[in-house]
Amino acid sequence: MQIARAKVVVEMVREFNILIVDDDDRILNFLKSKLKAHGYTVLTANNGAEALEQVKIHNVDLMVLDIIMPKMDGIQALTELRTFSTVPVLMLSAKATDIDKIKGLSSGADDYLIKPFNPDELVARIEAIRRRIDVNRKIEASKVIILGNLHIDMDGRRIFADGIEMKLTRIEWLLLTELAQHAGRLMSYEELLTRIWGPEYRDDIHTLRSWMSRLRGKLNKQSVHGNLIRTVPRVGYMIDVPH
What is the tens place of the pLDDT at every residue in 194-237? Predict the structure, then answer.
């Protein structure tokens, strides 16, 4: 019985496609072998432009993206990627400053790993992202998002806290559901502003903060569990995946 269960887990992992993007063939080949040994299907690209084409052609579940590359670097590629895809991105960089990390996360990355890194840590971070993806896919399939005592009926566009319906404005609804549907992933100020108000508002952080304050006030009034929406200073907001 235990053997059969283990086999099912391996088969699920093999369906997860990872695109590795780096201009160093040695790193590409090493990571490709490492991830294949863990049951992942691996694609590769040598620069940002090639990576974007791969995403358009193939079903990519996660991208491991280096920052420093010729033709199109990782930040440029990620910025372009976010105009048409929400595929999770784990960034790799030899730059270890907080400013570089913030720049990567603000551009839409899900995680950030400094070179040189332990390959086992890379695998662990990939598996953590995959678990969040699995949770989000279950949420999308159910059409009802449950976050503690908060129930969000996506089809009916209704929200209940402890069975009592909450009244939200259109903007409050959009903010909450964007974060809820991406539970476990940090959403940058720019991403939320672009998704809800449009690209021309991507720098209007004051507007976002004002609406977020109103939304939090309503959630707190209804005694929604804990601090549902977490602020990541200078980057954005997220809802942690409930345990």
Answer: 888 887 788 899 999 999 999 999 888 887 765 889 999 989 99
> Of 92, 120, 136, which residue sits at a domain end?
136
Statement: the pTM of the whole predicted model exceeds 0.70: no
Q: Say whether 59 sits in a helix, a strand or coil.
A: coil
Of 136, 155, 180, which residue sits at a domain end? 136
Alpha-carbon torsion, ordered 52, 54, 57, 60, to 10 deg: -100
Write out pLDDT tens, residues 66-82: 998 988 989 999 989 88
Q: What share of the chain is helix, strand, coil (3-state, %, to 5)?
A: 50, 20, 30
Q: From residue 47, how far is each of 94, 105, 122 by CA, in Å?
A: 16, 19, 20
Cα of 124 vs its chain's centroid, Å:
16
> pLDDT (tens digit, 9 = 90+) per residue, 110-140?
888 988 889 999 999 999 888 877 766 666 6
Q: What is the 3-state secondary structure (H, E, C) of 88-125?
A: CEEEEECCCCHHHHHHHHHCCCCEEEECCCCHHHHHHH
- CA atoms of 126 and 113, how far apart (whole Å): 11
Question: Can you give the residue range of the structural domain that contains 235?
Answer: 143-239
Rounded (10°) CA dihedral 115, 118, 119, 123: -100
Q: How many domains are contained in the chain? A: 2
* 163 in Cβ contact with 175 (< 8 Å): no
Helix (H) or strand (E) holding 50: helix 48-57
Q: Which of 18, 8, 9 is nearest to 129 (CA)?
A: 18
Helix 74-81, helix 48-57: angle, nearest 10? 30
Question: Do the Cβ atoms of 143 and 202 come closer than 8 Å?
Answer: no
